[in-house]
Amino acid sequence: MSVQSNVEVHTEWGIVSARQAGRNLAKELGFSSVDQARITTAISELARNIYLYAEKGEIIIESVERMQSTGRKKGIKITAKDEGPGIKNIRQVMEDGFTTSGGLGAGLPGVKRLMDEFDIDSIAGEGTEITTIKWNS
Amino acid sequence: MRIPILKLHDYLLISVQVELDDQTALQFQEDLLNKIHQEGSSGVVIDLTSVEMIDSFIAKVLGDVVEMSNLMGAKVVLTGIQPAVAITLIDMGIMLDEVPTALDLEQGLDKLQQELEG
């Protein structure tokens, strides 16, 4: 059984709603309070990027499962999708301290470190899709 | 939404009890600087015990407000950062090196007193 929630992000309030939806599902799935904070923070960074650079997009939060030799593993998957300008140089945005918005430049590399799996798919002029998963250990 | 700022003698006390959205954080930055100016406060304690998440934006706003207050001549101490928040900040690579911190409000006030007397 998988639970999914989609949050539209086109205002700052979308960032807050996405965060809350993520925290609720992380809690339901039994993540520790530290992992809940990691997941919520990662969602916040992804949602803010949508708001800042693409103006609108959506955050999809869902539970995922994977079979392993040691049994079934549960996790939370966050997808951030937008039809914004796309990322021209992915290597550059994954560098610590790189920013075009006057922020700390901790956003995307930070998300990658907070989560277990991280994928960026971006086409200049078409949009960006970032998928990231945290497994419940 | 606005975060209340309380005056205690020469100090200002703030307990952040709401989930910080961008607008509230920026409004707070401005409100605090105005209040320091208006009251002539020498020290500020911002208590973050109830804050469950600090992302890079909120971290920047907090770091900035500490520096801005320093420029005006007021010392700021952040207190009560939760374990999960501290872990997440370091995971993200956010150090907040220059920012004075203390475990709780009581120790924060002690720290302010030491800094202002020392």
From TrEMBL, chain A:
One of its GO terms (molecular function) is kinase activity. The keyword Kinase applies. CDD domains: HATPase_RsbT-like. InterPro entries: HATPase_C_sf, HATPase_dom. Pfam families: HATPase_c_2. The keyword tRNA-binding does not apply. Residues 34-137 form the Histidine kinase/HSP90-like ATPase domain. Keywords: Kinase, Transferase. SUPFAM superfamilies: ATPase domain of HSP90 chaperone/DNA topoisomerase II/histidine kinase. This is Serine/threonine-protein kinase RsbT. It comes from Alteribacillus persepolensis.
TrEMBL record, chain B:
PROSITE patterns: STAS. Residues 1-112 form the STAS domain. It comes from Alteribacillus persepolensis. Gene3D superfamilies: STAS domain. SUPFAM superfamilies: SpoIIaa-like (SSF52091). Pfam families: STAS. This is RsbT antagonist protein RsbS.
